[in-house]
């Protein structure tokens, strides 16, 4: 049985109770979190329960065009009033170059895809990356200036969030 098959079996058991049917799409705590897809950072790491926040995840916790689209909807349609950006130590994108990742993928796939990502958004210093993501949001005209946008680094060795100041 594949992992996907295991997930489908677990979902079938869950669906018999479906306890989350009454959770609102509007986050109870009016919070949106932009973070990495890393498995070590979860809602319980942040003291959040299901329904508390919109959590947007991608490799590196990068503010991409799609993240901005989601945050605009989160704020203007669903009531979020604060945004957290969280990167973490020991990130797979740290210390790599765009060209290195592109070469790796091409060598493994044997193809330079036409619809390949234009960038992987690699970085060298996690704190600088957090500051860059904050600035992307602060400069966007559809993210109101009065919304707090704060950035953090999650330290995977001790579980602590450290705020990164501008």
Topology:
Layout: H1 3-15, E1 31-36, E2 53-58, H2 65-76, E3 82-88, H3 98-109, H4 126-139, E4 149-154, E5 161-164
Parallel strand pairs: 1-2, 1-3, 3-4
Antiparallel strand pairs: 4-5
Biggest sheet layout: 5 strands, mixed
> What oligomeric state do these chains adopt?
single chain
Radius of gyration: 18 Å
Output the number of helix runs.
Answer: 4
Give the helices and strands as they follow along the chain. HEEHEHHEE
Distance between the termini: 49 Å
Strand content: 15-25%
- What's the total number of strands? 5
Q: Helices and strands: which structural class? A: alpha/beta
Helix content range of the residues, please?
Answer: 25-40%
Uncertain spans: none
CA-based shape: globular
Strand order of the largest sheet: 2-1-3-4-5
Mean pLDDT, nearest integer? Answer: 94
List keywords for this structure.
166 residues; alpha/beta; five-stranded mixed β-sheet; 31% helix; single chain; 17% strand
Description of the molecule:
By secondary structure, the protein is α/β, with parallel strands linked by helices. 31% of the residues lie in helices and 17% in strands. It contains 4 helices and 5 strands, in the order H-E-E-H-E-H-H-E-E. It has helices at residues 3-15, 65-76, 98-109, 126-139, and strands at 31-36, 53-58, 82-88, 149-154, 161-164. Strands 2-1-3-4-5 form a 5-stranded mixed sheet, covered by helices on one side. A hairpin with a 6-residue loop joins strand 4 (149-154) and strand 5 (161-164). The longest helix has 14 residues, at 126-139. The termini are far apart.
